[in-house]
Amino acid sequence: MTVTKSDLVNRMAEATGWTKVDCEVLLTGYLAYIIESLESGDRVEIRGFGSFYAKERQPRLVKNPKTGKVVSVAHRFVPVFKPARNFKKSVNHKLLNKSGLSRNEE
Prior knowledge:
Elements: H1 5-16, H2 20-39, E1 44-46, E2 50-57, E3 60-63, E4 70-73, E5 76-83, H3 85-99
Antiparallel strand pairs: 1-2, 2-5, 3-4
Helix pairs in contact: 1-2
């Protein structure tokens, strides 16, 4: 299942009692601020959740697996999200329990 922006807005509205319009404005503004921060080269850190930053990628040659043609990929920056340690552990633990696997079976 994929969680969409409207799903997030609905959950925020239910949790806060605010209108969906207010929640959408808040979420849109929050996401825009993260994008603006990354565009200016800043790192956005949300303690306990994770951090967003732009990672530099050097130019390189890559092979298109479909055509076999080698193409050049330019120097670029890509947005990256790195989850906090407890966030990663929590997701891993919940999904392992959901799938019926224990840590010893990994």
